[in-house]
Structures are given as structure tokens and as C-alpha cells.
Amino acid sequence: MASWFYASEGKQQGPYPEGQFRDLIAQGVVRGDTLVWSEGMAGWQKAAEIPGLMAGGGAPPIIPAGGPPMMGGGSYAGAGSAAGGSLSVDFGILDFTWRTLVMLIGSCFIIPIPWLFVWYTQWIVSYVRVPGRPNLSFTGTAMAIVPWFFGFIVAAIVIGYIGSQILSTAFYIVQIVLYWMLLKWMIANIASNGQPLGLSFTGSVLAYIGWNLLFAISIITIIGWAWVAAAQLRWTYRNIQGTRREIIFRGSGLGILWRGIVAAILCSFIIPIPWVYRWIMNWFASQTELAPRGAM
Questions:
Q1: Cβ(266)–Cβ(272) under 8 Å?
Q2: Which of 17, 47, 169, 218 could be 228's S-S partner, Cβ–Cβ 3.0 to 4.6 Å?
Q3: Contact at 8 Å (CB) between 130 and 76?
């Protein structure tokens, strides 16, 4: 079923499922002269110009074929558009500092970690800017990960008490599986304008375990970890589904390596940490691009 967007005071609202969108029409929120768009349309059109849309029932409206809509002279691509571009992220240093301190101090008490993690993730995601996806947010709740987290804590205590090397190795694999589950959960809970994007992570758990083991082994080479990290990030992005656009990481292993070295040196002085963190995040975001599927 089609999802719909409408323009209000120059800003895009949506996406809305067709049933909910027709309710907006019935309520007078969307009028005949309101600009609307749905995936597959060539551009924004007045609602009254789309056959069957304003009737409030009957057959679905006819959606013309074509490219993505543009608003404000092309400065804004509609959600779900095939337009490309790089991500960006920015946040205030003071905001980052106090939130990070709260996160670190609170984590010392163990129990609050799921709630702190969700709170911190919601803050970070809100500062990520994605072309064609306004007002990004994270909708996951702490209670969804509480069973995983406390199950992990109990297992760690038990295995530590037993002291078995075989169990410790098995627990390491279980830990990677939990990270895979966490990644899937986080991607599935990304929203735009308060509406879930319907994203999913389809990478297999065996492949994820393999990448993590390869990364652990690459640490021995001193510098090889950077190239493994770049390759794993590309694999991760390729396996994010639910969007018309491919997510591509353009960064190189060399780019990750020298930035990692600089970051380690600067962070040893403590005070520069917030600026270093923002610098690293900005670079990774700038190297993450959206492109029409099949463009590569």
C-alpha cells in the first residue's frame, strides 16, 4: 500500500499509510490545493489533481511514473526518493560532554545501562542528517533489550565463577551474536518524521561472526584492522534493506588508520576528546553516501 507525504508551510510531513492519509483528507488537514507526493510520482502535485485521491474512497489514486519530488527549488528531496548524497552529523560539544559523562557514570551502576544506551542513541540519531529523510529519530525502547542485557550479565558472572576456557570461548561467540541482534534491532527502529522507515538488516549471523573474528585476528598485524573495518562497514551497509537507495561507504582503510592514530594521540590528553569524537563521526558520515540502486 502506498505511503503519502504532504507539504505544510514549506515542510514535508509524512510518510502516512494510505488509510491514515485519507483520514487527513477527511479532517481537512490535506485540502485540494495541498501539495502531495507518493513514491513513483514525478513530483509534488496538488491533491485535487490526482484522480481518486480527494474522493475519499473507491479505487486507489493513479500514481504517475517518474522520479522523486523536489521542494524549495530542489533543495529538498522527498523521502523515499532516489536522490543521492552524503550523510552529515553535528552536535554541540557541551551537549556531547555532559551526556557522555552521564552515560559513563551511570554505566558504572550496571542496571541503568539499557536505559542510558537508548537515551544516548536517541540523541545521536537526531543529529544525523540524511538526504531526503528529515527529522531522523530512534524509536527503540530500553525494555526491548533488557532481557538480552541482564541475561548476558548473569551468563558472564556464571562463566567467570566456573572458570572454564571452553565456556569463555563459547561466551565470546554468544557476545558477537548479541551484537548482531542489537544491530538488527537498532536499524529496524530508525524513523523519519516519527514514522518507521521499515529498514531491516539482512546480513547473516555467521557472516557477522566471521567479520568480527577476522577483525580480532587483524589486530595482530597492527594496521590491518583498519582495512577490515572498512570492508566490514561496506558489508553492513549492503545488507541494509527497505530503501530505494543503496548505502555506500566511500572511506578507505588508510583513511580510517591515520585518523585512528591521530584520535588515539589526541585523546591521551583527555580534554580534546569531545572534538576528536565529533571529527571522527563527521568523517564517517561524510564517507557514507546514498545512491540509486544499481548505480554502482
A1: yes
A2: 218
A3: no
Phi/psi at 130 (nearest 5 deg)? -115, 125
Q: What's the pLDDT score for residue 74?
A: 38
Chain length of the chain: 296
Position 259 confidence tier, pLDDT thresholds 50, 70, 90: very high
> Which distant-in-sequence residues (6+ apart) come within 8 Å of 68 by Cβ?
43, 77, 78, 80, 81, 82, 83, 132
Cβ atoms of 276 and 266 closer than 8 Å = yes
Report the alpha-carbon distance of residue 214 to residue 211 in Å, rounded: 5
Read off φ and ψ for residue 128, nearest 5 degrees. Answer: -85, 130
> Could you read off the pLDDT of 44-81 as tens digits, one per residue?
788 888 888 876 544 445 544 443 444 443 333 443 44
The three cell numbers locating residue 224: 590491518
H helix intervals, the chain: 18-26, 93-107, 113-125, 146-162, 165-188, 205-218, 224-238, 253-267, 273-286
pLDDT of 165-176, one tens digit each? 899 999 999 999
Q: Which cell numbers in the block locate residue 283? A: 568523517
pTM for this model (two decimals) = 0.73
- Could you tell me the end-to-end alpha-carbon distance of the chain, in angstroms, rounded to an integer? 29
* Tens digits of residue pLDDT in 230-246: 999 999 999 998 877 88
- Residue bearing cell 553492513: 236
Q: CA 34, CA 46: separation in Å to the nearest integer? A: 5
**Residue pair 184/198 in contact by the 8 Å Cβ criterion:** no
